[in-house]
């Protein structure tokens, strides 16, 4: 192929390949100095860390938001342009004792997402004496609920941290009301999927009422499902004051009301998971939903590129 001939190109998923002859004198005009470029041998390629580029036979490489930029000695190089996949953004909700904590651990282990729980975040902010933490502490010391706007700001700021943006995030048990969901939407924060763990109320009550805490080690036991290893441990176990049947039913009622309100915001991306099975089977359902989401992204990305 001559140096002035048109470029032959093929598009496969996220990559665009140009395959004219190679010349050691070839140079590539870099439209963005932050992008990494390497001039290699005939059998190698020049990766361009960018996305959504269009190729033209008049030897230009253009981006939809930029002007066409000329490629110097364009016919004499081999180029691959690829787009980095967007990280996952996941919300998960479940009633007390639904197994949400266990599933969050399994999700973060496999997918490497940043696990964010509003309650933990609130305690960290208060301990760090941040501006939001100081405001929250004033309400907590009075025995009052921390206003939504303070918690929403904490969550928003955490979701926008570099690690969350790079790795993706798993937002645990938040939002809990339609107003909190609306506030996140106003900030442009929207999940890819909303996972709801469903467990019958009778089973939830049994799980909660049977829980016991070892004050010495902090380990949680269950009198039926995970009893203590010895009589010595059993003798020192305690029950949380709100793990009684009456209190747990009140908590469940509040949870169900909150979830119904939140689901109205995320109804199109909600996946309901049967949480009344072994934890491995619960995770298998979640894993299948996340895998399907990622595969669909691949298909959509390939269609756009083609």
TrEMBL record:
Nucleotide-binding as UniProt keyword: yes
Reactions that this protein is recorded to catalyse: AMP + ATP = 2 ADP
Residues annotated as transmembrane: none
EC number(s) given by UniProt: 2.7.4.3
GO molecular function, one term: AMP kinase activity
UniProt-annotated location(s): Plastid, Chloroplast
A cellular component term, taken from the record's GO annotations: chloroplast
CDD domains per UniProt: ADK (cd01428)
Keywords carried by this UniProt record: ATP-binding, Chloroplast, Kinase, Nucleotide-binding, Plastid, Transferase
InterPro entries assigned to the protein according to its UniProt record, in alphabetical order: Adenyl_kin_sub (IPR006259), Adenylat/UMP-CMP_kin (IPR000850), Adenylat_kinase_CS (IPR033690), P-loop_NTPase (IPR027417)
Family: Belongs to the adenylate kinase family.
Self-association state and partner proteins as the record states: Monomer.
Family matches, as NCBIfam families: adk
Name of the protein this chain belongs to: adenylate kinase
Organism name: Durio zibethinus (Durian)
Lineage of producing organism: Eukaryota, Viridiplantae, Streptophyta, Embryophyta, Tracheophyta
